[in-house]
Structures are given as C-alpha cells and as structure tokens.
C-alpha cells in the first residue's frame, strides 16, 4: 500500500501514468453558439477539407472541425506523453507566505516537458498524424523557440524531418534555442529568409526586418504547399491545437479532485491561446455544466494586446495573406512586434475559439506590462525555485494581483495559474530586467489603428 | 483508491512526498576500514572541529566526522526538498529500443531541481545549518555554474546573502549561469578576481588565467575566513556533502522496490564525486550487507582523469593551499583544466571518501572522451527528450557501452544511470559538438606528472 500525502500540506499533486487522461476535450461540443466559419480568402466562402489538405493530414483537418465532445488520444501518442506527463500541479506554499495572502495558489507546471513548455502536447500528435499519413517532412515557424523545439523533438520520435523558420529577432537573441532544435535533429532558418518568395519580398522592402510570427508562418506555409511530402504544423491558434492542449486541464481537474478543492480563479497567459485554452477549456466545460464557477482570466502583454485592444474581425493568420481568413481578435496581420526581450505571445491574432469564447463573455482579459511580469517572475523564482518563461510571468503577475486583493479582503480564494514553461533559455531577458535595461512598450489604440485599417474586407 | 501503473510498462517510477526519505545515509558507518584522516597543513596532525570552525557551522563539522549510520533531515529542509523531491526514476524504453538492447535502462533524474541538477540536495541543508548558526553570508566557488546556482537558490530560502566566484572560462562561456544566479539573488565574480590575495597573485602571474575550481575555492575561502558572519560552502568532495546527496540513492532504492527490480550495474559521472556518491552509497550499503550485488562504476572525463590516472596522495583542496590536506585521487592542486566546452567534472581531486572506496575495490572507474559523451547525449535527447548536462553524458556513454555489451551477450541486465542534470545552460557545448568544433584532449600521465611532482610531502 502506497503512502499518500496530506492534501493540505502537499507541495506537488501528482497523477500516476495510469491516471493520465486518454481523451482530449473538444469545447465546440458544449458552446451555446458555434464560432464563425473560417473563410477561403478568394471566394470568402467557408473552407472545406480539400482547401486545407495541401498543408495538413486529414486526421487533423477532421479534428479542426470536429464537434464530438471527446477525441481518443492514440496509444503511440500516449507512449510519448509518458516521458513527462502527467505534469505536476504545485501548491505555491512559499509564494503564498512571501505575499502574506490567505489565498491558496496552485500552478500547473508544463516546464517538465522535453522542450520546457506545453508545446509538445500538440507537437507530438501533429507529428504522429503526419507520419501516419506518409508525410516525411514538417515545416513550421517559431517565435521564442518553444514551438520549434517541440516540433523538432516530436519529429525525432516518428522519424520525420523538421524545418523551422525562427523570427529573426529571436534567432539573434536566443542562440541556445537554435542549438536545442538542432540537438533534437531539426533545421533552423532565420525569418525572413532568402529561401521563400514571402521572405525575399519582406527583405527587399526591409533588409533589416526583425521578422514576425506572421512572416515566419508565410515562409513555412509556402515551402510546405510546394512539396506533396511536406506538411505544415502550427503551434497555436487552431482548434486542433487547442484540442490537444486540453490534456493540461483534464489532468488539473483530476488533481484538484484528488485534494478536494476547486479553483475560484484561473489565470493563464495568451499569445495564440493554446496554453490558456488547454488549461481552461475543461474547467469551462464544468462551468457551463454548472458544476463549478471559476472566474477565467486571460493575461496578455500590454505590448501585444490583441484581446484587450485589438478588433474582432476576419484576418489572415500570416503576413503574406496565404492562410484562410479567421474571425479573431487581431492587431492586423501587418503588425510587427518590437523585438523586446519578452519571449513569445507576440502574435497579431488570437485563436478564433478563444476570441469567440471571449465575445460570449465566458472569459475575462487583462494586459500586463513587462516590468510587472518580470518582477513576478523573479519573486516566483526566489520562492518556488522555478525561473518561469517570460510568457507565464504574465499569468504570475495577474496571480499576484489576485492574491494581494485576497490579502486586502481576507478571501481564501483558490487560484490556479498556468505555468506553461521554464525560462532557462530566456535568461537574457531576466538579465536585461535585473540590469534595469528592459524596454517596455504599452501599445496604444492609435498605434494599432494603422494595421487594423489594412484588414481584408469581408461582408457581414 | 489511486490507480497505479504497470511496473514493466511504466516510464516514470514516482514516490509520493510522504514516501520521501527522512534520513541521509552515512557510508562511514559501514565501511570495513575508515578513510585516512584529514590533516592540518601546518602540523600534519588530524584536523579537529576548531580548525574548521572559521569556515563551517558546527552542525556540518559534526556531520563531516559523524559515524552514525543515519542522520535526520530537518523538517525545514524537507519543506524545501518537496519543491522537487522525490525526483523521478525513469525507464528509458525509447533509448533501449534505439540501441536494440535487451538491457533494461533506468535513469534517476535530478534535473527537476531549481538549479537543474543534484546540487540543491546539499545546498539547501548547508544554507539551513548556516542560517541556524547565525551566519548571514555564504561564499563559494562554481565551475559549470550548477553549484553556484544551487547555493544562490538555497540562500534565498533562508534569507542569506550569497557570493560566488565562478571559474573565468565558464563565466565567459556561460553568461546564462550568471543571470540565473542573480535571478535567485546571488552575486557572481569571475575567478581569478582582483578581490582576493589569492586571485591577485594568480592574475599577477597570468593576467589571462582561465581559472580553475581550485583557484575559485581559494578566493571564496579567503573571503569567508576574514569575516565572522560569513561562512564558506563546498559543493562536492567533503563527507557532509556526499551525506546530503544520499537522498538520491535512498529514493532510488524505494523506487526499485516499487517495481520489484534491483540494478545489476550502476553508472555515474564523477567530478568531485557528490552525485556519484549520492546515488551509489545506499546501494553500496546493500551490497556490503549482501542484499544485492551491483557493479558500481564511476565515469570521468579523459581530460580530467583523477581516478584512472591520478595518484592517491595527500593534497590540498584548493590551488593556494589554504585548505586542510586530504588523501585523495588527485591530478595535483596546480592542475588547470583546458577551458573546453564540457561543463563540470574539472576538479583536480576526487572526494576522499570515493577515493577510499575505490582503493578498497568496492567500485570501478572508467574515463570517456568528449566525443563519446556528446554522442550519447544527443542520442539520449532524441530518444528520451531530455538534453543532458555535459557531466551526466559521461555516465550515459558508459551506460550505452554496457547496453551494447548486453546486446552482444543477450544479457537482460538492469542498468541504473545517474542523470544528474539537464543541459539547458550548456547548449553552447552541444553547438560545438554538432558543428564538429568540440576540442577533445585525453590527458596523459606525462602531462599529469608535472603537477603531481608538486604535491606536499606528508610522512606515511
């Protein structure tokens, strides 16, 4: 008989591998209204499977439009998941004490994965389904580098080649990411590159372009579309990506059940929305069913505020306009983020599904400054011992806000934070923060207006 | 009732926090003969507690000479250990498959700790006992940076200042280590520095000195000895350090008991010996008691082969000759390692306790080249998803050798490997290896002769 840990005293709430969820959860099955359709940019009609088949295997296309509530996780994917899953749920005893809060703070930690973030949760099934379909190479973009690392790892598991366009600013700032991708067997190009029409056009206009996720997506999509043995993989935004990430929330539900608690507030950072959707959608199911009532709060950078300051409109997923049109919160596909030391979350658009859920009023959103985020990250490192990636410091900053409100009101709220990765390869950003050199830039609506004005015209 | 995982199929063998060992194991209680005494460098008589009290708190001095079989771990230390302990034992299913071996390969992974290695296992109790004794600052050396990071983290837990001398070559090659130490609140100086007599003397002789652990120890010891509120902390070599690390092996024993297996071969890398001792000493207890009979094999770099090519003699622990004399396998305290991309393990001496155990014939030792080590590290990353620190790639290279021997003989040996840390902050070394630029240097006995000739004369 195994000795179990006192739930109130536990630091780590763990699941055994046998307790790992065997299905992903599809929020589309439970929403009161479906999200607006994805449109073909030429016809402005809803896209069908054939429109997507040059880029994705049919298994993923079907998942993209599936309305089944649950999707079985293949055994071959579960086998790889077991390298790090189930991931731990931590009780932040030492952070609570440092804050002097009566709140109970929990964090679901995805930094235990091979890439150090939640990204392998979808990289692995994407590589698997592509390998099953006979594809031999995947292309993709990467910003901070987490996604590229994850896909390179996943491709190594199923014998696929992996070619990655990394946003130039990140490529220059984070040389370790390139090496880690190469260690897993992947190939990395800085983006914009001379290897694609999209890249050459950008470089012709601006040889010093720092790049953007939108540009890198254009390059990866262009290469994949030209070769029948090559497909493209996206690390966030799309429905099937968020579907794969729901294993995070499904585990967290089981972990809270183990200690007999439910969260009152859930905070997660949002870039494209996959970590946030992955943790929160299973809780949203419970909320929609009336079984619990957590406040669910998205946290984005004040320098890239698609939910809090962007418009809700049809836009391209990439800069060159090669992708279908998706209705989403967007800063405009021409948006180029400042090349500031702040990791990912620097995408012009927000997942259409997250955008829709936000429009339905099922979630809240706030924006945080870089200074607040890194301050929370340093405090977290010194108390909990994990140096968070810049992305989840946004969630931590919002978590600290909530915990300090509880200190004022005396409320013993249970706060669940998405700690989606560690910051080992982002330490240059911490160095800049500690040296007082961190460049902060709160994007104004005026600055966004220029990009938003260029959105494609789509009849209502 | 919790659902448990099939032992044969499991990837991770986990212990609950309640199952975490509550005592460290002291091998001195079970050895057939005690190791030779530590000597005062002036009198050549065995040192007493008073000789050590300018540097260490009495609790650690008593642990250094204790002969009790078990030492209770303080509750305040267990509270911090729970941030990452018990650490997982992994079955390397995917590496086994890639090698085509009938051997069952397990690795005990210490990279889940705040610093990313086993070092916090002793940093935390060292900081705790010093805080209990009223000390307000700790000084130390660091080579690859794991130990400095660990002590900075530990000091943050108990409110101590932490000042670190980092070997110059590593300071220049690994800027992220400095930032991580600073994120935890520590202060870092490159060594040799202008801040100490020892550092100034080295710089006067060689302004471009790449430094060494021996030099950095001299600097840290000098500063600690001058201030009654400051103590010194050592990250390896000493008995109390190895004592604290035995929680690794105690956990591994419980994890093997959980799946009903015992290891036939245990391999671990050795620099000062703390990770190796920490994993293997509890198994050595079982071996000495006749309850199991594993082969225990130390693996060291061919470029710093203290066990396989050094002499067994009294030597200083530091370069300036400020420490007591310890009988150990040594390359001579003047030894300066090549500033090659290979992380830690670059210390001139070996733990006296490991050296004694080696002389008793209770363990074996082999040396591995950098090429073999990084090849094993890359294969491990691509199969198991963890990029290992350069140090444990030595153990992995020896593990691969053993597994391939099993492939030839058909033996289904159970191999336990000490995976003492991840390589996220050592990726530059992987970059050099992948680019074919890794400098390899197998140290010859002739090269060592010069340093060994300068050993202090100690009558037998």
UniProtKB/TrEMBL annotation, chains A, B:
Phylogenetic placement of the source organism: Bacteria, Bacillati, Actinomycetota, Actinomycetes, Micromonosporales
Catalysed reactions, semicolon-separated: (1S,2R)-1-C-(indol-3-yl)glycerol 3-phosphate + L-serine = D-glyceraldehyde 3-phosphate + L-tryptophan + H2O
Pathway it works in: Amino-acid biosynthesis; L-tryptophan biosynthesis; L-tryptophan from chorismate: step 5/5
Known partners and oligomeric status: Tetramer of two alpha and two beta chains.
Residue stretches making up the Tryptophan synthase beta chain-like PALP domain: 83-421
Enzyme Commission number(s): 4.2.1.20
Presence of the UniProt keyword Lipoprotein in the record: no
Modified-residue entries (N6-(pyridoxal phosphate)lysine), positions: 119
The species this protein was found in: Luedemannella helvata
Task performed by this protein: The beta subunit is responsible for the synthesis of L-tryptophan from indole and L-serine.
Record keywords, A-Z: Amino-acid biosynthesis, Aromatic amino acid biosynthesis, Lyase, Pyridoxal phosphate, Tryptophan biosynthesis
Entry's family note: Belongs to the TrpB family.
Record-given protein name: Tryptophan synthase beta chain
Cofactor dependency: pyridoxal 5'-phosphate
